[in-house]
Amino acid sequence: MKYIKLAAFGLISAVTLSACGSGSEESSGEGGGDWEPEQSIEMVAPSGAGGGWDTTARMAAEGFETEGILDEGMGVVNKEGGGGSVGWSYIQGKSGNPHHLFVASPPLLLIPLNGQSDVGYEDFTPLANMISDYGAFAVRDDAEWEDLNELFEDMKDDPEGITVIGESSPGSMDHMQFVKIAAAAGVDPKSVKYVSAQDGSTMTNLLNGNADVYSTGVTETIEQVRAGEIRVLGITAEERMSGDVIEDFPTAVEQGIDATFVNWRGFFGPPDMTEAQVAFYEEKFQELNDSEFWADTREKYGWEEAYMNSEEYSDFLEEESASMQELLDDVGLYNQE
User: Which of 41, 107, 121 has the alpha carbon at shortest distance from 76?
Assistant: First the structure.
C-alpha cells in the first residue's frame, strides 16, 4: 500500500513541516546545509521486546547496517509503558538532539485523543513513514466460529460472554481496530469486552482460554497459524494480502463488512530538528525503503510499502488524527467534547 493508496484514509492538508517543530535553527546543528550524525543513533521502540514497534525498529537498524546506509551505528532500546507514552515522553525530552529517534503507528494519535497522554504527534518531527500493516482477529483453532459474522452475531446476543484481548491499552489500536469492524457489523461498540495485556501474554491468554479473540497485527499471527494453534477469522485490509499463510486470511470486506483499518508505521525525531537534519534522515530512510533488504523484510513480515517523506507524513498525520477522532466519536467512545 503506497502513499497514494493511504490517501483513502484522509490526506493532503495544509499543515507545514514547521508545525511539527522541525524548522528551528536554534536547535543543535545548522539550519541549512549538510548535516551528519556526530555519534551513534538511538532508536526507541516505545514497547517491550517483540511486536510491531520493536520488530520494525530492529529491522530498520539491521537494514541500515547491512546496506551500509549509515556511517554511525544505530542501537535499539525498549522503553515500554503507557501504551507508548513513556517512550514518547523520553524523546520529547531530547528536544533539538537529532541522535534520538523512535518508531510509531496509530497509537501516537489514539492515546492522546482518548486522554491517556498529553504528548502527541504534534510534539515530534515526522521523518518518514515506511510500511503499512493490517489488523487480524484470531481465535483458537478449536473455536466454534468459522468467520467474523458468526463471531459478531454471538457478540450481539451475549457480549459479556466473549472476551477480546490485545496488547494495546483500551482506546488504542488493537481495541479500536476491532471495535471499528465490529461496529460496522452491527455490534454495539460499547458492549465489546476488551482486555489489555501489555506484558506480552496475549497469545498465552488466548490459547489457555482466558480470552476468546485476539486482536493484533497480521504478522503476529503467522507462526501460530502455521503451527495449527489458531485461526484468523478476518483481517482489516481492503483486499487479501499476498504471501505464505497470509494469503489465506479472509478480509472483513469480503465477508460483507464494509470497514477497513490500516496500521501505518514510521519514524520520528524529537522536537526542534533543523531542515538539514530532517533532510539527512529523509534521504537515509528513502535509501532503506528502496533497498533489497527492506523489500525482503516487507515480504517476510507481510508489510506493504507505504513510504512518505517528512512533508507528506506531516500532512497525512494531521488528516489521520481527524479521522481517528471521528472514529472515536462515531463509536461513542472517548468523546472529548
Answer: 41
Helix (H) or strand (E) holding 58, with range, is helix 51-66
Superfamily for 134-255?
A: Periplasmic binding protein-like II (3.40.190.10)
Give CA torsion, residues 93, 98, 99, 104, to 10 deg: 70
Q: Mean pLDDT for the chain?
A: 88
Closest CA to 176 of 45, 305, 326, 11: 326
Residue 243, C-alpha cell as written in the block: 504471501
CATH 3.40.190.150 maps onto the chain at 3-132+263-330
Judge whether 44 and 101 are in contact, CB under 8 Å.
yes
Question: pLDDT tens digit string along 96-136?
Answer: 999 999 999 999 999 999 888 999 999 999 999 999 999 99
Q: Which fold has domain 3-132+263-330?
A: D-Maltodextrin-Binding Protein; domain 2 (3.40.190)
Give exposure, 110-139, as e/b (b: 16+ Cβ within 10 Å). bbbbbebbebbbbbbbbbbbbbbbbbbbbb
Residue 158 neighbours by CB distance under 10 Å: 9
Q: What is the pTM of this model?
A: 0.81
DSSP-based three-state secondary structure for 109: helix
- In this structure, are strands 213-217 and 125-140 parallel, antiparallel, or unpaired? antiparallel
The Cα–Cα gap between 177 and 135 comes to: 7
Q: What is the mean pLDDT of residues 19-37?
A: 52
SS3 string, 274-332, reads CHHHHHHHHHHHHHHHCCHHHHHHHHHHCCEEEEECHHHHHHHHHHHHHHHHHHHHHCC
Q: Which helix (H) or strand (E) holds 207?
A: helix 202-207
In this structure, the dihedral spanned by the alpha carbons of residues 170, 315, 72 and 49, taken in order and rounded to 10 degrees, is: 10
Which cell numbers hold the place of 99? Answer: 541522535
